[in-house]
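Researcher: Here's the sequence for the chain we discussed earlier.
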Amino acid sequence: MLRRIASLSPSLHAIAFMLLGMLCFSAMNTAIRYMAGSMPSFQLVFLRNVFSLLIIIGWQMARIRAIPRFTTQRLFSHFWRATAGICAMEAWFYSLTLLPLTLATALSFTTPIFSTIIAICLLGEKAGLRRWSAIMVGFVGMLIILRPGTDAMSTDALFVIFSSIMMGIAGTLVKSLTRTEPPETIVFFMALFMVPWSALPVFLPWGSGWHDVTGFQLEIVFIIALLSTIAHLFLARAMMRADLVMLMPFDFTRLIFTAVFAWFLFDETLDGPTFLGALLIVGSTVYIAHREARLAQKQRAAIGNP
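Model: Thanks. This is the structure I predict for it:
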């Protein structure tokens, strides 16, 4: 399959990698949901990161047929990306033990919206009426999913919202890193820093403590780590080959893949309000990305850059 993808044009190449990444993320989240209740989420995150680190080292050894050397001049960027990422991961894994899989996935689409707000508030980016209107549409979509004031509203959804905020920060750093770092290096340093971070809530005195695991549980955790590692590699390769504005609409396929898995394995169904809310959120983020890309193109043209 990868050979066929390699023969495509750069744009189709990026889209194919994006779709494969979304499929892997959906399968990973399904496996996490399957493990809900059988293992503390903190321990699941720790084991996932240990396996991910071993997988990326083994992958690179097999690829270059030598001991890999992951060199970088941006160690602090990797550190902060991993710090934001571990906060997002802990909240996300925990939320999947509490919420229906499709609901959590739909809410996770708010990540680009929070990324935009962070860029406006902390980085000083300018925002006009259209950009703020798109952000408001995204929040309307989130409210449709949450349905505040009804029995469907759950405070557990706040874990997904927090995860989306932290993922927005991590995603901004990843996009910056892809300009100079190969995908394997990004994934390696992410796992390298996440292992000690994720060990803290397990092994410290105030942590959840270590719980015995079975061989089957380790196999599932390994699959989770493998799917996560492959998904991040696919996503990084997609972002190296195409602009984010072209790739963002395909993020919606994550909800479709997840809905299929959730229906088949857990008998969960995707209700109308959740689908509509997710559609509004994705539509707003796609518009924001398209708007930003056009403004960036005009700025480059104004200063004489191609």
